[in-house]
Each structure stands twice: as C-alpha cells, then as structure tokens.
What we know:
The protein is mainly beta. 3% of the residues lie in helices and 46% in strands.
Amino acid sequence: MDKTPLFAARQDGYRACRIPGLCATPRGALLATVEARRGQGGDYDDNDLLMRRSTDAGRTWDAPRRLAANADYGAGPLSNLAMVADSATGEVQALFCHDYARVFAVASADDGATWSAPREVTAVFETFRREYPWRVCATGPGHGTQLRSGRLIIPLWLSDGSGTEMGTGRRGHRPSAVSLVFSDDHGRTWQAGGIVCRHGDTVAGCEVRNPSETVMVECEDGRVLFNLRTESECHRRLVAVSPDGVSGWQDVRWDDALLEPVCMASMVRLNWADGRRPGRILFANPDTLDKTMAAWACDRKRVTVRLSEDDGRTWCASRVLEAGPSGYSDLAVLPDGTVFCLYECGALEHMTDIAAVTLARFNLDWLQGG
C-alpha cells in the first residue's frame, strides 16, 4: 500500500480542496477530482472543480486543471461532481451542481483528457417536486455506477432549504431526502428515480434524520444496494435495496457493523463471483464515534476499508487506511484488481479544514492482511 498527496490546501488561491471524486475508466485511466474552495472553504464559497489524471495506474499524475470554473456560472459554488464510467461506450459521464440549484452534465470520450461543453439538465430535477419541495439539490458526491444492464445511476440528495445551519441568507441543507437520477441511453438523457427515504422516516424504531450523501453498488442477484449517510441517533449507516436501482425500495435497515460519524462514505465492487472466488465489495468511511472536535457530529478520523463477500450483509475483513484526521473518500478499482481510495487527510484549523486530498493504492492482500 502506498499513498500520494494529490491536492493540498492553501495553494493557487484556494483555501481548501475538499469532496474527493474518483473514477477508473474502461481503458484504465484514473480521474481524481475535488472542489477547490476559496473564502473560508465552506460549502457556499465560490468553488471551482479541479481534476488530475493518471494513465499509468496512479504512479504519475498530470497537473491540476479546472474542469469547471465558478466564474463561468456566476455567484454560488460549483459542487458535487459525480462521474460514472460507461463500459459499453468507453465514455465517462458526469453531473455537477451550481449553487445547489442547477445541474449540468459533461462527458469525456478520451479518458478525461477533454470534456464536452456543459449542458444544463436541471429540468430533470424539477420532476422531483411532485414528491418533494426541494430548494437545494446535490448529486453524489463520489462516483455513480453502471449496472450490468447498462443503466447509469447517480445518487443525489435534496433539501427544502429551511434549515438555518448555513447562516443568514443561505438555504440550509437540512432537512433532506435521498433519491437518484438514471440514464438508459448512455448519458444522452437522464430521468428522475423515486425517493429512497426522507427526514422523519422511522426504521427499526430509530428516526431517520437528514439522509444525504449516498453510495451504491449492484448486488450479485441484480438488485441495487444504497448505503446512506444520516444524522440519526443510532449512528449506523442506513441501507436500502431496490430491484432496479430506481424504485421499489425495500429491506431498509441499519447496518450494525458500519458506524456513522456523520460523514460521506464510499463503496465499490471489487469483483463478481466467478466460481473460483466470491463476489466482493469494498466500503470505506471514518470508523469512529469519538466526539471531541464538534458538537454536531463525531470526529472525522480513522478512515477504514472493509470487505464483504455477501453483498454487504456481513463484513469479513477491515483495515485502517488513515489513523489520524481523515474524512470523505471515494473508491475505485482498475481491471487488474488494484484498489484506490482518494480521501481527505489531515486537519488544519478545525475538523473540516482539510490539509490534503490523498490517494492510497492497495490490493486485496493488503486489506486481508489487516
């Protein structure tokens, strides 16, 4: 296992780089993205989206470049970039948000070397208003997933904006609900899925509070597993299963093995079952409920990678990736089975003042050796 810092705070006019995104393309390139934040490094600062690219399994990387610049869109942040690789076309599709109110789509046919002009797809999100009166929308963050059927799915969360936690004059990110958008035509058009859960739902006697950043994976039987961040008192990850990844959510439960410190997590399939080996999925998040740095959440530290060989019903191995301050992460796997985790690492003046976004590269032997 080795680590490479890819983005650092207090450089190139940015106060912080946060919210990692990682995508392994069908041809083996790696695309790493962050929100480059000005001001105080908050969610509503005038943020740009930066990208770095590797074509040699993460050994070397090109210089950071702007995938999208705030100056081209106006006041309000660019945020929540979510990429998904299409194995049928070889393209990478991506969605991102402006000011948590508009959504844009871009695509790359050359492993992220160049990208299409952004096209606005906010009209798709307007259809959610039939079920939820949103004033804040956010795709991802992290990567989307392509099902074996070819369907592309990107999870998202919505808020009615009534919360006051973002300060005067800004729409709050709480209360919230989780849903998704999907494409059955390789990203040419997107459609709205059903609401997975919302603030105020109750699961096994525990109230669901402010569900938001969601990760997902396709199960061996074709069902789709969503794994959600919440602020619920039980402090466990919430999971739900759909037959098609779009609607009919069922088997909603708390995963007792996965602690929820109130932080984005990541999930990816390592391999499918093939008769010689079981199907495996990986999950990563801060594995702690220590509470010393903030009143509203647990500490962000001890990012840990876990392994499941039964589609997330149990977790048979785990290993700490970063014992110290560490938070948001995104996982990706190359065709040869090499695993990558791009994660927030280190803290400067406070818990969410991230020192760097670092890439860890490891394999199954390293994980099981823990």
